[in-house]
Amino acid sequence: MSRRLHVPLDEAELRAAREAAAPRGDLHEKVRAIRAAAGCSFPTPDIDEMLGEIERGYLARTPE
Known about the structure:
Number of helices: 3
Helix content: 55-70%
Shape: flat
């Protein structure tokens, strides 16, 4: 089952994300970096816990 994550960005952040995603540089170096990162183990919760944390944080910031 897939889930969707909505991340609001202002114009400057969106522009920076698009520039970072643009295919520049050595493709082989990028693939090596992705493979190295995929082999790492980072302490992250499962998706349901992560989404719950995001929602609680969002609701805590929302003015009533």
